[in-house]
Amino acid sequence: MTSASKKGNCRSPHKPPKDYIEMKKLFCTALITTWFAAASTAGTIEGVLEKGPSHSALLSVSPESGDLIGYAFKNQSPVGKAIFQSCLPGMLCRLGDSSTRLLNDAASLKFDDQPSGWYEITKARDVGMKTVVFGYEKSLKTRYGVATVREDDQVFLFRGQPVKPTIEGNSGLSIVANYEMGQTDILLLQNTGGTACPALFHIVHVSPSGLRTSPEFGTCSDIIYPSFNPNAGVSISILDFQGPNEPPLAQRKATVTKTIYKWTPDGQITKNGKPMR
């Protein structure tokens, strides 16, 4: 609505006559309704899947306004079955071909985050999950020095020197996320492999007291959803993975399960709640 209001110039710094105000309200209402109707003819939808008892939703941030938008659906509907067949809660879900309509009565929808606008998904095809990264960077300036990936051998450097133990990429090494947690800078590194194991990960933890690194971790999948809590640390949800030579049933099962790794403020990593050795 913010975008529509700006485009329609629905605010005036002066005090116009009453009939003008009413006419302006009608114009703005029509403009906003038209904007929502146009938005409801969705093609591609991407959002983080949140599951509820009877209804679930894809939650997405509008690129125009920055508002949180909810795309709801009934769990047992054809749309719900199509989404849950290929997407997991807490991961970024993509609908390549979809249709929506404006959802006027959303009072019964209770989710952790409450969007400013709701739509109902009426069609969902070409459904799958996507990875979420900040980028694939080879250099990043932290508060304590520059982190880089040496191009000739894909070795991670901090302040121009390899860290110990050495972090080295297979086909490639990239900085894919970074966070500031108090006095600590946290980097997430992706070690890119091949078809047998597309990706593994490292955490680098830099603070005034020095640098710490995690052991290499991951499921071999490169589809991840990292999140950050300043009190709890970094959580990385990673889709499970079975290689191309594994039985088809095992490969399919892996695409609908995930493993959650957490890096705590004290520099420890856990896998599904249990400390990693």
The biggest sheet amounts to: 5 strands, mixed, barrel
Please, how many domains?
A: 3
Basic shape = globular
Strand order of the largest sheet: 1-2-3-5-4
What share of residues is helical?
A: 10-25%
Mean pLDDT: 86
Structural class: alpha+beta
Along the chain, the helix and strand elements come as HHEEEHEEEEEEEEEEEEEHEEE
Contiguous helical run count? 4
How big is the Rg?
23 Å
Overall number of strands: 19
Ranges where pLDDT stays below 50 over 5 or more residues in a row are: 1-39
How many angstroms separate the termini? 51 Å
Describe the secondary-structure layout.
Layout: H1 2-8, H2 18-39, E1 45-50, E2 55-61, E3 68-74, H3 78-86, E4 92-102, E5 117-130, E6 139-142, E7 145-150, E8 155-158, E9 161-162, E10 172-181, E11 184-192, E12 199-207, E13 210-213, E14 217-220, E15 224-229, E16 233-239, H4 248-254, E17 258-263, E18 269-271, E19 274-275
Parallel strand pairs: 3-5
Antiparallel strand pairs: 1-2, 1-4, 2-3, 4-5, 6-7, 7-8, 8-9, 10-11, 11-12, 12-13, 12-14, 15-16, 16-17, 17-18, 18-19
